[in-house]
Amino acid sequence: MAPxxxxxxxxxxxxxxxxxxxxxxxxxRPDVLNADDFRRQGKQVIELIADYYGGISDYPVxxxxxxxxxxxxxxxxxxxxxxxxxxxxxxxxxxxxxLPGLTHWQSPxxxxxxxxxxxxxxxxxxALAAGINVNPFTWAASPAGTELEMVVVDWLGKAxxxxxxxxxxxGGGGTLLATTGEAILCAVVAARDQKLxxxxxxxxxxxxxxxxxxxxxxxxxxxxxxxxxxxxxxEIRTCRANMFALSPMxxxxxxKADVEAGLVPLFLCATVGTTKTAAVDPIGxxxxxxxxxxxxxxxxxxxxxxxxxxxxxxxxxxGAEAVDSFSMNAHKxxxxxNDCCAMWVKKPRTLIxxxxxEQEVIMTDRASEGHDVVxxxxxxxxxxxxxxxxxxxxxxxxxGTDGLRDHIRxxxxxxxxxxxxxxxxxxxxxxxxxxxxxxxxxxxSPEPDQSGSEExxxxxxxxxxxxxxxxxxxxxxxxxxxxxIYMLRWAIGSTLTExxxxxxxxxxxxxxxxxxxxxxxxxxxxxx
Amino acid sequence: MAPxxxxxxxxxxxxxxxxxxxxxxxxxRPDVLNADDFRRQGKQVIELIADYYGGISDYPVxxxxxxxxxxxxxxxxxxxxxxxxxxxxxxxxxxxxxLPGLTHWQSPxxxxxxxxxxxxxxxxxxALAAGINVNPFTWAASPAGTELEMVVVDWLGKAxxxxxxxxxxxGGGGTLLATTGEAILCAVVAARDQKLxxxxxxxxxxxxxxxxxxxxxxxxxxxxxxxxxxxxxxEIRTCRANMFALSPMxxxxxxKADVEAGLVPLFLCATVGTTKTAAVDPIGxxxxxxxxxxxxxxxxxxxxxxxxxxxxxxxxxxGAEAVDSFSMNAHKxxxxxNDCCAMWVKKPRTLIxxxxxEQEVIMTDRASEGHDVVxxxxxxxxxxxxxxxxxxxxxxxxxGTDGLRDHIRxxxxxxxxxxxxxxxxxxxxxxxxxxxxxxxxxxxSPEPDQSGSEExxxxxxxxxxxxxxxxxxxxxxxxxxxxxIYMLRWAIGSTLTExxxxxxxxxxxxxxxxxxxxxxxxxxxxxx
Lengths: 528, 528
Hints:
Chains A, B: It comes from Lolium multiflorum. Chain A has helices at 35-54, 86-98, 120-132, 143-159, 180-199, 218-225, 248-260, 283-291, 330-333, 348-355, 389-423, 455-470, 499-527; strands at residues 173-177, 207-212, 233-236, 264-271, 296-300, 325-329, 341-345, 428-435, 438-443, 478-482, 485-491. By secondary structure, chain A is α/β, with parallel strands linked by helices. Chain A has 3 domains: 1-32 and 63-102, no CATH class; 142-357 and 374-387, Aspartate Aminotransferase, domain 2; 401-527, Aspartate Aminotransferase, domain 1 (Alpha-Beta Complex), CATH 3.90.1150.
């Protein structure tokens, strides 16, 4: 690192102009971007990350800390003048107090959330983009940045077997955003403005959006942000018998009722791989219902979209030719680090109509005059954009679609193996059919409620979850409470997760279950 | 890099299940996250970036390319199976075809946009965050991630001399978002929901937002996204005599007229450092006008907010104690790489009321029970979030507030020096008073229009801009068209820009001006 700069100002004078300095006190400009420092400090960072990956199994997935633990360790303000070799000290603090206070999303025992799957190439692609640090908000502001984005969204769309109509190659087009929330919001706003243009700009209060009670809260949040009334968000009830998928018949009924009440159906968010149970809504049939009311259909495939790289999963989006927009998070299960949500739209002009800039901008660009260039700032909420295309391009190029298939299939296979482990222990059951790499399971209650209620079983599984998550080396586990049933949920997808991790983690669950059941029995025995 | 994985599947069978493999063909799982590969490939990336910084002056700031240039060079789909050592080849492509096709935001001759100022520590902070790749959307999902964010937004707020009421330490609080657009959208939505709760949820069509004709288009875009009618966005006219600042009197008149028309004033976006001329709206007086109508005041200090680290600039936010929210882009001029917009709010509960999740989430967390933890997903649009706090913390810690002041002051001093250069050439004028490090200047017309119109001068400067930007080694320059005057605009702020770059760039402008004026004279002479 450059030697710490000197403080050459002791403040400014009263009228806000910079204090004049004697010649020997010339402004010491901090040397903060320099190739040699970058080489030296960059290697320190690479070593730190490599060590982290090498030792990640040693960390408990979730740290045993209480709120405020880190704030108490840090000063209440930034230093005025950095300590000598501040960068090395700061990296030591990363090792000593920050890493031990994190929930480790790259741990092979992190099963609680859909993954944030890292890869060497994905993480380094982000590092490279941060180093180059361009802002591809218009074509002119970074031509190669914009064009690489256009190329890779088409590459990704083809690799995922999306309909051609969503790709640039087929008249649609895609972009890379931060999150699914952003993608859904952009789609809702595009749909809303298109609809209001048709019916009257004042009727925003009549618009209705549709989803199921399993849809990610991003839909309702987006609709609310876009000014749709909260009581015009229809979260249609699903049921276990139908695998918690949205029923086209129920959707039809809801839309019909709204139309009869003088309201205007606007938007449907269908999900491929819901958060709680990875349920799959029937895209084709839902689109048919939506079409009758000229409703925009968005498909949220945040997690399961990555699985579409395998042709054996293509059927889950049958009928997608009819959708208006589609999004998936390449940062979840496709080895691209946070954040990288790909969104495709069939008619980019609707997106642009809602989100484009009206003002004259401060740049003109002769090279793009007369060309139909893509200015990505008109495709999303943000002006400043990172060069996300770089990491996605590197992942696709360096692992190849075959490599990504193997990656997905290996997790699916581990999930299959885990499902068999659960089925082999009669005390447990797999509650919903395994989809992709998500397994939802629970401990059966040894004493079923006579009323048919699930109360006892639910309490049992709540206790089991708590005890499993309290085991320091244990698997980090989440729950889903669906259709009245409380179940545990393991999403297999962390890049480093292998079958042995799942087998070990399952032993932890079995042991905790045995302890709980044994305690229950002894209590019952003492009562009897 | 790990040896390219083998393709062990030749597809899937018809009913969508994975093909069974013979024992010797066991699934070959790609080895995509491994400490040794990360060390080796990471060092390649560090070398590439260091070389880029070392040689950045050799690139033209803006590449001489036409739309489609890169798309034509790349295949139309991702490879199935990667070539041998694909990572090294890909990095070679970055050097050969991607870097030469970028607009170089780190070039010392990039004056066109407000900077995207890189630093060694800022870029490596992003690399580190990408390697660790956690998702701090709730406290539990990454305790140290959430707490470091809370700590650094307070550090930054104090360093920028913000009122205590906006900091966690003073009952407010901050967060790190991607962009100002996102910050304004969150603020508008919070203000909107608070107001509709008071007046009636159906009156969204009556709400009005206010800004000046100099306000960044992010305000109107955010308001439109939030469902505010386009014709209820008041862009109040400013004038040169008032330095293009928003007049409190005009704001008062606009609000009064709206109230009299039965409309409801909602939101004011005041700017400190407008995009076109770095104008500063008078915060304190505007807040007083807004208060009379219970209007939410947001301050957008995207660019100039960084300058607040210098006490001599504190006066530009006099009266900020009264604002409801404030945002600035640390990625613009404060050495933190894209993206890092800090937003503070006085009453976090209003933000949370508008943006919080209603659904039961899939995790419970015992450690945070009974504590008032911050779950940052409720403070913004997105669920997935990067660990942005890390890079900001590193920048503050390793450069110190004194270092950041020196950095800002050195650019301000260069801008002052440039202003003097312009003033020393009688053919030119500085059009608006220099603010911070932005200089707006133009070539005077040798033949002023008799009507007092600026037509000839504007045409002259349009031509000058075009010719300057056509010089391969020239400074990348933008324009502003304000109050009928077309001017050139240089924002000094790229980390590597030194006075010598500006002096050289100024020679280019002078030479192009001489050539244009000379040609004009000879045409006039031949006409006479």
